[in-house]
Amino acid sequence: MRYINHVICFVMALFLAIPATASQEKSGKLNTSQIVVGHIKDSYDWHITDIGTRHIVINLPVIVKSTTGWHVFSTAKFEEEPDAQGYRKGPFNLAIATTGPQAGKIVELRGGDIVMPLDISITKTVMVLFIDSIILLLCILLPARWYRKHKASDAAPGGFTGFMEMLISWVEDNVVKAGVGEGYEKYSPYLLTCFFFIFTCNLMGLIPFPPGGGNLTGNIACTFFLALCTFIVTQFSGTKYYWKDIFWPEVPLALKAFPLIPLIEFVGIFTKPFALMIRLFANMMAGHAIALSLTCIIFVVASMGVGIAVGMSSLSILMSIFMMCLELLVCFIQSMVFTMLSATFIGLARSKGE
Q: What is the four-CA torsion angle of 184, 189, 194, 200, rounded to 10 degrees?
């Protein structure tokens, strides 16, 4: 427990120190909105901190197809500061727009025209996806290796393998089996993958420095793909009773002739995964934004006098610690809620009628 406390204190110190030097306006004041938005949004490089005027970043590969062909190079090739038009210029007439509708995207400057190239670059979100996927694979393959070397009659595993067995059994029995019902076994791999992938991404997003610090589940593209997978699995699992209840429900004939109920049920096919997408995205994005905003209070009030600075800083630290602890709980709850709702939707689609 003593070492766990030391680790928590170290992480909190980094969490408080990194935003302190992360973004400043030209006037020297802390740009809190840029800190919060910069942490949440995607980018072509991975900003760590600033030391004086020097930006400490991890340069990621740019992969684009412009009018002159495919180009692969590092983001270090782009200029650090934008020009008068708001473009960080790079090679091959490519630039990163900092203003306008293309802000944050790579554009191709062709004279006075702006062309949007085919962009498949490894951005911060994509890199975080790779890292979290590798961590998830290790968390699954390491316990699997233990089971390959032991028999069912051997003593129960301990340590990390025992923890994973306990967590998988709990999710299997209380979420997957309870939601899907009979025949849940063939859906367990997908639903368990959803739970552990979201849980891993949520936890890694709380770490304020690489390889963590990415807001993957707070990215609408990621939650959209997860919800789309649940939508596809649900529709392909639908029985004839499921589709009958949608297009020919057990309601008075007048309501069938005027297809209000079937229309509502049909729209519900799409609103259910949409709710999954928005619920996960909004909760994780809001949690990160609140935690960072509370931390920034320390540096906003730093110049307002010793008494105010000490009082507000102490309150901000306590609130930041509280939010971080709450975020740990939210990481688990959001993983469980997404998996539970997905299992419930699949279970309803597999209805066998009365």
A: 130
- pLDDT in single tens digits along all 354 residues of the chain: 444 444 444 444 444 444 444 444 444 455 666 666 666 778 888 877 767 677 778 888 999 998 888 999 888 888 888 887 888 888 888 888 888 788 888 888 887 788 888 888 888 888 889 999 999 999 888 888 888 888 776 777 888 888 888 898 899 989 999 888 888 888 999 999 999 999 998 888 877 777 777 778 888 888 999 999 999 999 998 888 888 878 877 777 776 677 777 888 888 889 989 999 998 888 887 777 777 776 666 666 655 655 565 666 676 677 767 777 777 888 888 899 999 999 999 988 887 766
Q: Residues in the chain, how many? A: 354
Residue 220: give the domain boundaries.
125-352
Whether 299 and 50 have beta carbons less than 8 Å apart is answered as no
Residue 351's contacts (CB-CB under 8 Å, 6 or more residues apart) are 239, 241, 242, 245
Same domain, 174 and 310: yes
**C-alpha pair distances (Å), 232 with each of 191, 236, 242:** 13, 6, 14
Record the pTM: 0.80
Of the candidates 162, 157, 164, 174, the residue with the CA atom closest to the CA atom of residue 140: 164
Count of the separate structural domains present in the chain:
2
